[in-house]
Design goal:
The complex is a heterodimer of chains A (319) and B (121).
Chain A lengths: L1 E6 L10 H15 L7 H11 L2 H4 L8 E5 L5 E4 L4 H13 L6 E5 L5 H4 L14 E6 L4 H8 L15 E6 L5 E4 L2 E8 L5 E8 L2 E6 L9 H11 L4 E5 L4 H4 L11 H11 L3 E5 L7 H18 L6 E4 L5 E3 L1
Parallel strand pairs in A: 3-4, 4-5, 5-6, 10-11, 11-12, 12-13
Antiparallel strand pairs in A: 1-2, 1-14, 2-3, 7-8, 8-9, 9-10
Helix pairs in contact in A: 7-9, 9-10
Chain B lengths: L2 E6 L2 E10 L4 H14 L3 E12 L1 H16 L3 E5 L3 H10 L7 E2 L2 H8 L4 H6 L1
Parallel strand pairs in B: 2-3, 3-4, 4-5
Antiparallel strand pairs in B: 1-2
Helix pairs in contact in B: 1-2
Classes of the chains: A alpha/beta (319), B alpha/beta (121).
């Protein structure tokens, strides 16, 4: 499988502002001074070799949308945050507007940051496209329809040209979707959320966002570890610090990098991907959290190493 | 989870040993709660003999810290091994719970009236 991240922020979009862009430019220019960067090729090579990721790029500002390429001709997405617009434009560019496609979408829950991309999901407006929205959440259809409704949006749901279907999934049951086996599980989050285990050809991707884990709930931790068991990639809500999740942000429905490492170690998972980034964190801070997570894994490593990556808009991972 | 504790003035100095994780965090929470109840002014936790603490143990500390605030008592941890200090920093607990280099410095700050007894003991 191949996983592409189109949106990785939590709560609301967090675009990079002029001030942050200028800071990156100034830093790069100072670091490149005297290096004879008189061609685009030399400048590109300098950026790649001598600037860190937050110096040369950004983690991005779109909210949750992850594409899982199962090898099937149909598309499979997890959530329709603002990143869904970027995905849909790339799909239209790839196929052209006159070649209808089928899009399967797993919706974790219906909080705004996970569905706000639907009204801007370009395939909705093109006849012949088929969009199938799946969720264990019983309010999914109501929320999606309600979002495309006056006075909040000018195009009514009924006016969308594509064929749009809603499929309610049961937790702990496995379904064949877009060439993969998909199983949903209930997660601890306000108004409920659901994680999905996606399996194909012996490989497993877990999409688990907007989920709080109580550190002292042994049974709960073991249940989650069972759902993650042996996964090749766990896309994990690491929005807050552990201290936040057991103090001021307890019961806010999110988790931490430390819980991600501990749960993946319990589960024997192979790779953890930090996801659903706190929107107030800038690129340097996210890079710092990533480096600390690498160190925490090193300190706590049992027998085998857990690979750790941090998601950014545009990241592509082979599974 | 054994928590060796003794009174120093009106405060309690408690010392934990070994590893604190999901297997013993509930007992650790209970022991901390009892130690806090015993203290009149502050609970100081010496972690010099603790070589690892998981998220469950960190939550125990946070519960004790919050309880100390409610009871208007002092709470601090002291003498963290380097690995523990790293874990506290990564978890951001070091921004919430007072940390002291030594138990003596913790007593001096949280229970200054007990310092003479601490030095004598």
């Amino acid at each position: 499988m191949k996983v592409t991240f189109w949106g990785t922020r939590g709560s609301l979009p967090a675009p990079l502002g002029t001030k942050a862009v200028r800071k990156k430019l100034v830093n790069a220019l100072v670091k490149g001074a005297g290096k004879n960067l008189d061609s685009a090729e030399k400048a590109e090579a300098f950026c790649d070799a001598e600037l860190s990721f937050p110096e040369r790029g950004t983690f991005g500002g779109n909210t949750s949308c992850v594409q899982v390429d199962t090898g099937d001709q149909d598309y499979l997405l997890c959530d329709l945050g603002s990143g869904a617009r970027e995905f849909s434009l790339s799909a239209i560019i790839k196929h052209g507007p006159k070649q209808p496609q089928t899009y399967h979408v797993l919706i974790s829950h219906v909080h705004w940051d996970h569905i706000m991309g639907f009204p801007f999901f370009v395939p909705c407006y093109i006849p012949g496209n088929r969009i199938i929205l799946y969720s264990c959440h019983d309010k999914m259809e109501q929320a999606i329809r309600g979002q495309n409704h006056s006075p909040c949006f000018p195009v009514e749901f009924e006016a969308l040209s594509a064929t749009i279907e809603f499929v309610k999934l049961e937790t702990d049951k496995t379904y064949d979707i877009a060439g993969a086996r998909v199983t949903g599980t209930l997660q601890l989050h306000g108004n409920d959320s659901y994680g999905y285990r996606i399996e194909k050809d012996g490989k497993t991707v877990i999409y688990t966002t907007d989920s709080e884990h109580k550190p002292q709930d042994k049974a709960g931790m073991e249940q989650v570890a069972g759902f993650f068991r042996g996964a090749d990639l766990v896309i994990f809500d690491a929005m807050y610090s552990l201290a936040d999740t057991v103090s001021v942000k307890e019961d806010w429905g999110h988790s931490s990098n430390i819980m991600g490492v501990e749960l993946c170690q319990m589960a024997g998972a192979k790779r953890l991907c930090l996801f659903h980034h706190e929107p107030v964190y800038d690129d340097q801070r996210l890079e710092g959290i990533f480096n600390e997570t690498l160190r925490f894994e090193e300190i706590t490593r049992p027998d085998s190493k857990l690979d750790i990556v941090i998601a950014h808009d545009g990241l592509v991972l082979d599974v | 989870m054994d928590l060796n504790r003794k009174g120093v003035g009106d405060a309690v100095l408690a010392k934990a040993c070994g590893r604190i994780d999901l297997s013993n965090a509930d007992a650790f929470t209970t022991a901390l709660s009892a130690a806090l109840t015993e203290s009149k002014t502050a609970l100081i936790l010496d972690l010099s003999k603790v070589d690892y603490i998981s998220s469950a143990g960190l939550r125990s500390l946070m519960i004790a810290f919050k309880a100390s605030k409610t009871e208007n008592k002092g709470f601090g941890v002291a003498a963290l091994q380097p690995v523990l200090a790293e874990i506290f920093a990564i978890a951001r607990l070091s921004q919430v719970i007072p940390i002291f280099p030594t138990a003596r410095e913790a007593v001096a700050t949280l229970a200054p009236d007990a310092l003479a007894q601490f030095d004598t003991d």
